[in-house]
Specification:
The structure is a single chain. The protein is an alpha/beta fold and 213 residues long. The chain has a single domain, classed as P-loop containing nucleotide triphosphate hydrolases (Rossmann fold, 3-Layer(aba) Sandwich). Helices cover 53% and strands 16% of the residues. It is built from nine helices and eight strands. The strands form two sheets. It has a five-stranded parallel β-sheet. A hairpin with a 2-residue loop joins β3 and β4. The longest helix has 18 residues. The protein binds cytidine-5'-diphosphate. The site of cytidine-5'-diphosphate (CDP) has 15 residues, from α2, α4 and α8.
């Protein structure tokens, strides 16, 4: 099983790099952040308080979700746009700090990888916790300003200041939580994408994977 783990904070370039690297290497790609967003979406839709650990943990065990080629469905409902919206972004850190949710999603991520023979998997704890034996672990960073600018460009209905505040809040929650916080995994290759072209990052990582295969 060939797993390439890409972790890093919001707006560090994980999704773009992950997708292109997967394409370049002919591997499948999994965005695990979308899975946490699906749980937040399902909780809101069922009027469950995202901060209430037990019902949200039970939800994570039973909800049906699919994340394929950027199209996301939750219990058969298309949630592709909603999971990126401000309501889900506000709730997702609470859901992601819930150990029962993390346990369920880790199991789903491992079974996805087994089914696909590995792949490029992106998130916060992929190299540190979910796949510590990945053939390549990458930790992407970028300055807070660059990360907020990238996100503000994607979310045309939000102001830069709102986006910057949302990213700063989620980063602090992700780094500070007790269960699998955002950290650089042992042995990870760390790249600051603030000033390097994404294509250059993809080429560098593809060469590293090829040298290890
Ligand atoms: O797209 P962005 O980088 O802003 O976030 P995301 O990758 O969609 O992840 C949304 C949230 O899910 C993060 O802020 C984390 O709280 C959580 N997450 C996590 O805890 N563990 C992962 N492996 C992936 C995401």
């Amino acid at each position: 099983m060939r797993v390439i783990a890409i972790d890093g904070p919001a707006g560090s370039g994980k999704s773009t790099v992950g997708r292109r690297l997967a394409e370049r290497l002919g591997l499948t790609y999994l965005d695990t952040g979308a899975m946490y967003r699906c749980i937040a979406f399902a909780a809101i839709r069922r009027q469950i308080d995202p901060a209430d650990p037990d019902p949200v943990g039970r939800l994570a065990a039973t909800v049906e979700m699919s994340v394929i080629d950027g199209v996301v469905t939750v219990d058969g409902v298309d949630a592709t746009l909603e999971i990126r919206g401000p309501e889900v972004s506000r709730a997702v850190s609470m859901v992601a700090s819930n150990p029962a949710v993390r346990e369920q999603l880790r199991a789903r991520q491992r079974s996805w990888a087994t089914q696909h023979g590995g792949g490029v998997i992106e998130g916060r704890d992929i190299g540190s916790v979910v796949f510590p034996d990945a053939i390549l672990k990458v930790f992407l960073t970028a300055s807070p300003e660059v990360r907020a600018q990238r996100r503000a460009k994607e979310m045309t209905d939000l102001e830069y200041d709102q986006v910057a505040a949302d990213i700063a809040r989620r980063d602090a929650a992700d780094r500070g939580r007790a269960d699998s916080p955002l950290v650089e995994a042992d042995g990870a290759v760390s790249i600051d994408t603030s000033t390097i072209e994404i294509d250059e990052v993809v080429e560098l990582l593809a060469a590293l994977v090829e040298s290890r295969s």
